[in-house]
Amino acid sequence: MTAESVNGEQIREVERRLASYLDISSKSKSKNAYFFHGLWHDEDAYHQAQRAFDQTNNDLNIRIQKQNGKGLVRVSFDEEAGDKPKYWLHALLFLLTVGTTLFAGALMEGVMPWPDLTGLIHGVPFSATLLIILGTHELGHYITARYHNVDATLPYFIPAPTFIGTFGAFIKMKSPIVHRRALLDIGAAGPIAGFVMTVPALFIGLSMSTVVEVGAVEGSIQLGDNLFMWLATQVMFPDLGPSQEVMLSPVAFAAWIGLLVTALNLLPIGQLDGGHIAYAMFGEKHTWIARIAFVALIPLSFLSMNWLVWAILILVLIRIQHPPILEQDTPLPQFQRIIGWVSLAIFVGSFIPQPISM
Q1: Fold topology of 3-83
Q2: What is the radius of gyration, based on Cα positions, of the chain?
Q3: Using one digit for the tens of pLDDT, what is the confidence trace for 300-318?
C-alpha cells in the first residue's frame, strides 16, 4: 500500500491535530509517506505532540522529530511492507557484486576463473580495493544522512557483467532533506569519504605497478590522466622517460576507477552529489550551473563517447534541475561552504577529459 492510498480524512485529521503544536510551513510526500515541516509553537510543544500522538490508536505510524527547534513529522502506514529495510536484498546484491568484481579482477591478472573457481583468488586485490572505495563513498552518505535525521537505505551494490564487474552503488533517501546544511553535508560526505580511501589505494597500487615501453603491450587500454593521477605518478616514478608508461596494477586501476566515479558524481547537475552541493551553496542559481555543466558534456563527447552515455543517463534518470528543499532560504554556515569548495577541488583534481582510449 502506498501513500496515495492513505485515507485522505486520516491525513487531514493528523494535520489538524498537529497544527496545535506545529506551525506547518510545508508539506511533501514520498512513495510511502507524508511529511509535515515547520516551527514548534514553543519549547514544550514537541514533547506535547509526542505524548498526544503516542496515544493515537490507528493504522498510521507517526514519527515526530526535532531539528534545531524545527519539526519534521512523518506519517505512514504502520505495516507498510515497502517501507521496511530489505537487509537480505542489500546482502545479496553485495555478495553478487563481490563475485562479479572477483571475476573481473581475475581476468585482469590473465586468469580465467571458470570452471575452476579457485582462480577467483587472483581477483581479490582489485575487488577488495574497488568495493572498499565504493562502500566508503556510500556509507559516507548514509551515516551523514542519519546524523541529520534523514531516512536512508543501506547501500545497494550493482553487480554487472562489465570489465570492472559492477555499475557502482547507491543509497535511497526516504524522507526529505530539510535545510541546506544537511543537503551539502550529505552530498559531500560520499565523495570526500571515497576520496580519502582512494588516495592511499592509489599510492599502494602504483607501488605494485610496472613500467613498460610505450606500445609494448598489444591491445592494452589507454587510461586518461587527471591531476591527482599525474601527481601520484610523478611522486612514485620520478624518472619515467617519454617513451615509457606505467602499467597499472589491479589495485591502482581500482583507485583510478574511484577517481573517475568521484568526478562523475561531483558534476554539479541534478541529484548527483555535485548537484546537491551546488544547490546548497548557490540555491536557485544552481539551475544555470547545471545547464552549463550539462551542455559542456556535448563537446567532451567528441573526446570520449563515455560522456555522451553519461549525458543520456543524466537526462533520462537523474534530470538536470535539482528539486527544492523545505528550507531554501536558511543561510549556509561558513564551515559547510568550505566543505563545498573542498569538494570542488576534489572534482577538478579527479576530472578525466578522456577516460578511456584504445
Answers
A1: Gyrase A; domain 2 (3.30.1360)
A2: 24
A3: 998 888 898 889 988 888 8
